[in-house]
Specification:
With 195 residues, the protein is mostly helical. It has a domain at 66-193: Cytochrome Bc1 Complex, Chain D, domain 2, CATH 1.10.760.10. The protein has ten helices and four strands; from the N terminus they run αααββααααββααα. The protein has helices at 3-13, 27-47, 59-63, 74-81, 83-86, 104-107, 110-119, 145-155, 168-177, 187-193, and strands spanning 68-69, 72-73, 121-127, 130-136. Helix 4 (74-81) crosses helix 8, helix 7 crosses helix 9 (168-177) and helix 8 (145-155) crosses helix 9. It is elongated.
Length: 195
Amino acid sequence: MTEENAEVRVRARELGEPEERNRGLPIAYFMFAILLTLWGIYYIITQTDEGYFGDQRTEAALRRPPAKASGVDGAQIFGAKCASCHQATGAGVAGVFPPLAGSEWVNEDANRLIKLVLLGVSGDIEVKGQKYNGQMPAFKEQLSDAELAGVLSHIRSQWGNQGAAIEANTVKEIRGALANRADPWKGGDELKAAK
């Protein structure tokens, strides 16, 4: 074998210099992206209830002015202090946090509701026929009379509740009557029996 033939063979075994090519994405990727976009548009159109927002409030409910007692925005206080457990819809969390919407604790005796929120509750409480066993914090030290009246008036006027607004003076009277008590109510039965 000649030296020239050996050199040709060596060059033939070596890879050539890499060259840059214009390789776009395969057409299948573009088709998949188009189909995914069309499906998303279809899903949004067919799954959106007319007139409802993500938390199931209607446009009419959003336009209704919030219940205010003594110039305090109860909706804002509810959002900051209560919505994490009772949810923005007032529906609570099944088996964990009781609902406020349609609750007998919210709609019936306003004084009992004030006592519940001032001292909180620890133990069994029945709401709308379902038992809950948990702890609700006391807001006696966290909220003023006007703030408590505002948030309670708010929940008594939302989610189908028809309770009357609560005045700050009523909260002040009940707070004074409970001044010597620091412990939370031991369940709903004790709270119902309280005068």
